[in-house]
Amino acid sequence: MESSKKIEISVVVPVFNEEGNLSALIPKLVKVLNPLGLPYEMIFVDDGSSDGSRKILKEMVSQYPSLRIIGLKENRGLSTALLAGMREVRGDTIVTLDSDLQNDPEDIPRLLTYLDRYDMATGWRQKRDDPWLRRISSKIANAIRNRLSGEKIYDSACTLRAFKRECIKEIPVFNGMHRFLSTLVKMNGYRIIEVPVLHHSRKFGKSKYNIRNRALRSFIDLLGVRWMKGRRIQYDVEERI
């Protein structure tokens, strides 16, 4: 949607070697966002892709004026790509989702409806269309994460979220924070709800995550988040004179 009005919704999409999905994802996003009738921008963060992802994005800019591209010099991971995009947003409402078409843009309007009662609506992939090993490992990881963090979050790693920009102003940033974004936001007193969303199997490209490359790293991050949660400073002002 091309508009001179103030941007209200900023969609942030991290990209790493997703050349097979971008030409389908962007039109899907536009089809969902246009009927909302609100000025929006789509920020695609190319996380140092080694395929043709950035070339495809550049070719689509002229067709979609709301499309913005941020190209990172080298691959830095999902947390960094998300952070780079969120720091560039102009809207007061932020939506994030993956670029692999496993998140469904059709869920975005429903997530946005919760922001009049909550500060963040995060996706809960109740029926994941993934291989059985990934589904099992995800359930185990979420159970451990909740046990050690004292939370009750069913799907902490789902990238599909809608939230108010103010939620991320003061959160600690670190590599791996994308798995704990809901907890980090809740630590600052914001209201969060998990909303069941669709999940599709990957049709193009390869997954960037497996048990070997994330289990130990995620556990170390979890211990750090647990420490931060236990040591955070909290107080209520009773009186000012």
- What is the typical, i.e. mean, pLDDT? 86
CATH topological fold name:
Spore Coat Polysaccharide Biosynthesis Protein SpsA, Chain A
Strand order of the largest sheet: 3-2-1-4-6-5-7
Structural class: alpha/beta
Q: Can you say what the CATH homologous superfamily is?
A: Spore Coat Polysaccharide Biosynthesis Protein SpsA, Chain A
> What would you say the CATH architecture is?
Alpha-Beta Complex
Cα-to-Cα separation, first versus last residue: 49 Å
Helical content band? 25-40%
- Give the helix tally: 7
How many domains?
Answer: 1
What can you tell me about this protein's structure?
With 241 residues, the chain is of the alpha/beta class. It has a single domain, classed as Spore Coat Polysaccharide Biosynthesis Protein SpsA, Chain A (Alpha-Beta Complex). The chain contains seven helices and seven strands. A seven-stranded mixed beta sheet has the order 3-2-1-4-6-5-7, sandwiched between helices. Helix 1 links the parallel strand 1 and strand 2. Helix 5 packs parallel to helix 7. 36% of the residues are buried.
